[in-house]
Amino acid sequence: MKYVLIWCREGSLIVQIDGSDFKLATHDTVTITSGQIHFIKESSGADGYVLEFTYDFFCKDDKDVELIFENGLFCHFDENQVIPIGNFKELDEQFRRIDQELKEEPYQYLTSVHSRIELILVEINRSKISRGDEIWKPDALLLKFLELVRGSFDSTYTLAQYAEKLKTTEQKLNDQAKIHAGKTAQMVIYGLITSEAKRLLVYESLSVKEIAFQLGFKDPLYFSNFFKKHIGVSPKVYRERVG
Predict the structure, then answer these.
(1) How many C-alpha atoms does 118 have within 13 Å on its Cβ side?
(2) What's the CA gap between 205 and 211, in Å, rounded?
(3) Which of 45, 120, 126, 229 is deepest in the core (most CB within 10 A)?
(4) d(CA 47, CA 26)
């Protein structure tokens, strides 16, 4: 499960994320949440960086978790947005140094990379705030909940079990989900399952039956009905349309 940041240093490109096109011009960036289907659709003289990092690598404490979530940087619930970067020289420098650190692997290079990703996210936040976006700093609990669900698709945990694992309550999870996603925690779970199902249907050579089992469904027919209820078409039709 990776978080992805695409920065267009020069030129332009179109990135498709979950079926929607986002056009990046020079110095624009877009963030992509773990599990979202994405690819570069078109490119016109584009040069830049694609940064990928995992939750386990970056999130050492709640401060890191909240930075990922702050101002909707990554957990945006299908509300991806193109963000023009004001201080683009800072981003260019940090991306260049990360590239250098990963190639040369000097002493404590991963600590350096972690710190530079922090600086990149802070600069993106500053660009968002400078253009008039509201400051939005949610609780780290919701991101932990999202990552736990994404890592437990085959476990079929109930909401009560997720709450127990996170040492919280179902009510607290519901409160956070309604504030930041506009839906119940259970509906958030369903949304993550369908997002993963779409990813598997498009990018993996698995049968619908295999995908059903991988997502914790013992009955492939029940999975197909579940998918159609939430997406509007069967898994087979979705694969034919998107694949």
Answers:
(1) 15
(2) 10
(3) 120
(4) 9
Task: Label residues 130-139 b or e (16+ Cβ within 10 Å = b).
Answer: eeeeeeeebb
How many separate domains does the chain show? Answer: 2
User: Which residue stretches of the chain have pLDDT < 70?
Assistant: 76-78, 243
Q: How far apart are CA 96 and CA 9, in angstroms?
A: 11
- Can you give the residue range of the structural domain that contains 234? 140-242
Closest listed residue to residue 50, CA positions, set 66, 68, 36, 31: 31
> Mind listing the pLDDT tens digit for each residue in 97-110?
999 999 999 999 99
Q: What is the pTM for the complete model shown?
A: 0.80
Torsions phi, psi of 7, nearest 5?
-120, 125
70 DSSP 8-state letter? G
Place of tokens 């199902």: 197
3-state SS, residue 81: coil
H/E segment holding residue 199: helix 185-203
CATH number at residue 117: 2.60.120.280
Q: Is residue 196 part of a domain?
A: yes
The DSSP bridge pattern shows strands 83-84 and 28-32 to be antiparallel
Q: Let me know how long the chain is.
A: 243
Task: Write the CB contacts of 170 (distance below 8 Å, at least 6 apart in sequence).
Answer: 159, 160, 163, 185
Token duo for residue 242: 């998107």
